[in-house]
Amino acid sequence: MITSSLPASSRRLDELRVAQLKDETCQKLTDYVVKGWPSKKVVDSLCARYWQNRYEILVQDRLLMRGCRIIISKSHQAEVLNQIHEGHLGITKCRARARCSVYWPGISKVIEEKIKSCTACIQESSNRHQPLIPTSFPERP
């Protein structure tokens, strides 16, 4: 099972399942996965951003996923974003961390905005050391 390899406890997966059941977009996506996707012109506006990835979206263990990544409902996106950003690892590492387990449309841009507005990350990036400059050789010993 795909869900057994996810970096989340079974309790956390249950929370995400419940959140997806309450989320209108997730419900419509589940319907599309089960019944088939309509043409792009008739797809619900809530699901339009998922259209280009429609063949990757599936329901596994009653959990809506894009490939091996959990689709996060709107209500949990801020919380998951904070967990991804925990440790202030920078844009590249946070994106890589997200790519392993979670998805929602625009997640990459949201991660970038979060890090660019984080005072701890800004301070850390400005504290980077300057490259070492070689000293000149002495003329005499």
From TrEMBL:
<feature type="domain" description="Integrase zinc-binding">
    <location>
        <begin position="73"/>
        <end position="124"/>
    </location>
</feature>
<dbReference type="InterPro" id="IPR050951">
    <property type="entry name" value="Retrovirus_Pol_polyprotein"/>
</dbReference>
<dbReference type="InterPro" id="IPR041588">
    <property type="entry name" value="Integrase_H2C2"/>
</dbReference>
<dbReference type="GO" id="GO:0003964">
    <property type="term" value="F:RNA-directed DNA polymerase activity"/>
</dbReference>
<protein>
    <recommendedName>
        <fullName>RNA-directed DNA polymerase</fullName>
        <ecNumber>2.7.7.49</ecNumber>
    </recommendedName>
</protein>
<dbReference type="Pfam" id="PF17921">
    <property type="entry name" value="Integrase_H2C2"/>
</dbReference>
